[in-house]
Design a protein that fits this description.
With 95 residues, the chain is α+β, with helices and mostly antiparallel strands. It has three helices and four strands; from the N terminus they run H-H-H-E-E-E-E.
């Protein structure tokens, strides 16, 4: 089930959105899980991994397990490339 979506204009904005969504979701968790959810994206290594992946056009995903429910927060900034399907290209748009 998709809970939210957001089209970020940059890797920095995408990372900020993940952090905000984590904090918002944490308000619904038990105190122990909420504390971890609020802190995980503040860890420098996690934040740097997200930024590095998105700067190079890769998607980033952070998985959180709370009370046997798996939450996946993922983001990827657009590289400006046209979307592609396996085995074929989308037609170029002309003005």
């Amino acid at each position: 089930m998709l809970l939210a979506t957001f089209e970020a204009s940059s890797p920095r904005v995408a990372a900020l959105w993940i952090g905000v969504r984590l904090r918002e979701m944490a308000e619904q968790f038990d105190p122990q899980d909420a504390h971890w959810a609020r802190q995980i994206f503040s860890i420098a290594e996690e934040h740097e991994a997200a930024m590095a992946a998105m700067v190079f056009g890769e998607d980033f995903a952070l998985t959180l397990l709370v009370d046997q429910v798996v939450y996946v927060f993922s983001a990827g900034a657009s590289t400006g490339a046209e979307p592609r399907l396996p085995g074929r290209l989308w037609p170029a748009m002309t003005a």
